[in-house]
Sequence to fold (848 residues):
Amino acid sequence: MAIELKMPALSPTMEEGTLAKWLVKTGDEVKSGDIIAEIETDKATMEFEAIDEGVIGEILVAEGTEGVKVGTVIATIKGDDDAAPVAAPAAAPAVEQKAAESVAPAGLDPKAKAAAAIAPKTDAKPAADPELPAGTTMVPTTVREALRDAMAEEMRADDRVFVMGEEVAEYQGAYKVTQGLLEEFGPRRVIDTPITEYGFAGIGAGAAMGGLRPVIEFMTFNFAMQAIDHIINSAAKTNYMSGGQMRCPIVFRGPNGAASRVGAQHSQNYGPWYASVPGVVVIAPYDSADAKGLLRAAIRSEDPVVFLENELVYGRTFDVPAIDDFVLPIGKARIVRPGKDVTIVSYSIGVGFALEAAETLAAEGIDAEVIDLRTLRPLDKATVLASLAKTNRMVVAEEGFPVCSIASEIIAICMEEGFDHLDAPVLRVCNEDVPLPYAANLEKLALINSAKVAAAVRQVCYR
Amino acid sequence: MAKSARPSTATPAASTAAKPAPKSRAPRAAKPEAEPTIASSLADEAAFALRSLQQAHANNKRYDASDEELLKFYEQMVLIRRFEEKAGQLYGLGLIGGFCHLYIGQEAVAVGLQSALTEGHDSVITGYRDHGHMLAYGIDPKLIMAELTGRGAGISRGKGGSMHMFSTEHKFYGGHGIVGAQVPLGAGLAFAHKYRGDGGVCMAYFGDGAANQGQVYETFNMAALWNLPIIFVVENNGYAMGTAVKRGSAETHFYRRGTAFRIPGMDVNGMDVLEVRQAAEVALEYVRAGNGPVLMELKTYRYRGHSMSDPAKYRSREEVQDMRDNHDPIEAAKAELLKRGVAEEKIKEIDKRIRQTVAEAADFAETSPEPNEAELYTDVLVETY
Fold:
């Protein structure tokens, strides 16, 4: 039985080509790998190799022919029954037919409607914060200590958990977040790295793929720009690309956002960057209890987590419940101040400004509800929309650039899913849209503060 | 001559005495004074035995395979060759889309190296040219081919494609599309082996192109610093996409590139499966003994283009034909089998069986259905929040 040689597709986009030159003629013996023709595509001249062994039968398309459609039979090979048993020749025509059936419709169908029809239900409710038993002792704790305690408690519970980063061990942490960990857990589990973010982010991701639970500290998230390839391409995408087979349970953590007078390269909020990518969880807590409860949840999660802290908040003290297994749910926003007139949505250090603004506004007779998103991805839309339905007015306060921000996302959600509840446009209060300047006066002008938040609230309340 | 930063130790013998000798047997086979062409007069270099493994390899180049072992290697190489040819064919028919990088010509590397590993115990990680490494680790060709055609039965449920395949069961960790990323990831796998103390080794493959990525050197530094059980394998096939090695690399001897990190290098002929296997033995002995990483350079050649849409105008047809005619690893193994007196029938039997296996894989890949549309939304995150 003759084997048909068909015009091959030589690039992802090729539909037809020119049969530039035949390098064989009828009667020539060919074996797999021999180059039998040259084919010009729109991009280049390509060599066409034989796959099967045999003798060239007929040449059906003369050299120099232009516009030969992919799949056209261009020649035949007389099969060598001895060398090429049943399967090879039999398979080829069948393959071609199936290709026409299955590939073409898939390529043409925009699938938009189909996608909407099969989209997963989004009504899954994140678990609520655990109820604290009556009489739970609250311990004033700095955010810095809360984070350290979270890591220490998870390390005690699970030997797979280790901490790696620059100056995390002997120096006790550049911002003292890992203070005391080396002493308790030793150098096997608290590991100083050289200054090589790309490398150790990759090593951490690989260790997670290999079954460990790394906590990778970046001295600041500004330096994680060197490592973002591993956070996104290696950690975030592997589970999906492997069809759920290969996980990457890792936490990338460190301070994020503007510090104080450190200039443009050391002052940026990467929340919107990471939150834009499916496959990662992004957490940005404000107070000590959330920092502790959510970092523990992050370390326990089977998913890669970007955990964004804030240097200016590390030293602030908040109450943390003194209970053994204090873990908070990922993906759940928290109403930190209930109110009825307007909603201020924020996260991280912005929550502090929002609460300050709410106090100011209360004195003016505006009762503001403040929502701390806590998790930026997956975003707790339900809490935001429920609050909007109650107050009908919203301001988003975010310490970060305004363009393509979390604020932008919240506003889009309100437009798409909360439009009927809006009595005023949602406003965003962000940093100015400039790299952060060094000079004290300019820096102050560039950053968000509670007065700017309060002003925006008055505006949406038409006051 | 550059001065060593260490206290002056005039002779290699003295410096060896000053530093505890490595535990592995491999370096012992490599007394610097044994081979003046390789031994350096730098005392420091002698002390860290940079070239000891290369010397050990030079002393005994080829693996002493039984007929059965060589037949097995032959079979695995033929499987990769026929599988890749079929993949190329299916690509031409439009059944495989996107990027598809074939391993044809490089078969001896994956087969020679991985035959020395323990499947399911030692980890393997590579870049996007990954079909060969998977087949060499015993992963079912049907699942690989079905992934290439984007079917639900593919090893990544059709969501990875040619470049993104994994089998945690076999400890094959992908399948990575960002050039060089697999190197630190591999070091992470090695870190996990060491952390758990399970005795496993990671083999991390990358190409001569990836060898110029910065993260590779960040990784060399940490792997050497922490004595990670990893073998870095540079598959030097001569071309980083269309750029010949000498046009893209200041140091074209990649096995020397660990020098700055005190990682011993090995220069290996990647077109001879028995040489590759023997080199793997030397490297593994060193790494398993807790001496830290090894950097191997495997000189090899890809017959096909970088990917399917590569017109390959950066090299001559004669160059490719010369490699096919005179250096083909499969033909060489076949000739050796015949020379040993292995019956030709036995070889033909293998060829026939492999053709059948590949035809079945292609048939499976073509007839099994595309992924269920609901799969679009699965596996983004593991947990529900």
